[in-house]
Amino acid sequence: MGTQIVLAISLLGVIASIRFLRDAFVPGSFGLPETAVGAAGSAMAAGFLFLFAFTLGGIAQLLGLPKITGYLLGGMLVGPELLGTLSARNIADLSVVNGFAIGVIAFVAGAELRPQLLRERGGIILRILVCEIGIVFVLLAAVALLLREFVPFLAGLPFAAAVAMAFVFASIATVHSPAVTIALLNEVRSSGPVTSTTLGVVVVADVLVVLLATLSIAGAQSVLSPEAGFDIAAIGTIAWELIGALVAGALLGLLIDLYLRRVGTRLVIFVIFVIFFGYELADVLHVEYMLFMLAAGFFVENISPVDGEPLIEAIQDASVPAYVMFFSVAGGSIHLRELAMLWPVALGAVALRAGGLWLGTRIGAEWAQAEPQVKRYTWMGLVSQAGVALGLATVASRALGEYGGQIQTMFLAMIAIHEIIGPVLFRTALSRAGELPAQAEEVHTVRQAHA
Description:
With 451 residues, the chain is mostly helical. The protein has helices at residues 2-23, 34-62, 67-78, 88-94, 97-112, 115-146, 159-173, 178-188, 193-224, 232-262, 267-285, 289-303, 309-332, 336-367, 372-377, 387-432, 437-450.
């Protein structure tokens, strides 16, 4: 660990020196345009951030923490709101890697959703999903209304408008983070009922909660602006984004199947092409990108007659650098100022949401007669929030004006907390459930000895 700590400190010193020398010259010096200087700075930032975050990921692993936590802390530490080694522009420029990383994450998630898993655990997943979403939604909406004079986006609103805004807040709070869940599962390679149940819940929930949040935002918009009426067009748009993503993803899976059957070589290069092609295609078709790539992965692995395992392995080989950049950029984008301003309210909302997840998961698992470890630990894998929640909060900000902006600010603070504690809680849950590879092997050995 000592060597990695020295390396991390050395990297900080190198990048600080380079930035000092670069900033000593005014943009435009020596005939270089400002855009060229900015692009060079962002390219340098990408290489530095990758090495620094990767090093902190290794340190986190030695401390018994998820590597993702190290990546997040690395980005947050050198980001614009702490040391400022990377500027806001650098972080914005690096956000282009998110599309590639999300594509990798979603494709692997689709491949992991085996029909056997859905048949065996479909009832458990649906019961837990219904209970935890319902309880979190009702609990947060009710408490927000009871304390509305102390809640920034509810204070002073008429009761009907306050109810509508509380529904928007509660619906976005039901969102999970498929990216964090899948990345962590790929890192630790766990297996067992908690692993499969959590994966199923977060993937299926991604569709339902987007629809719930969209309906809530459209309803609040009609209450706050009665002259505008209920925006039925928004519902049609979101329906196309979800349903169209499934159809288009299956068609992309069919194209991948043709390549694997007719060519089947240079899979790493083909993977890079598929991810970026899918990103552009989803944008052109206006469909939800993560669901689009998830459907493609599911088709290739479970419906296509060709063996998709070599392609999945190639994607997993490319996943490590994608995860490092994705989560380090996410760490650099954490809004610490909002957290500093709203931390008491945000911390209370995070604790209340966690309580709702625990209660809802417990009730759903009891209803489904799930395994004891599923009842105890699955809720810990549902705490993380990231890009989907932030995206919905941004939609609320645009649609609902000042009050939507206040909801967005609240979620910026909450997501900062969720991104830090979520991966740690999930890895703890997998460890306590005995589903990490070394633990699973030990359990298997013990069972063979007793057989």
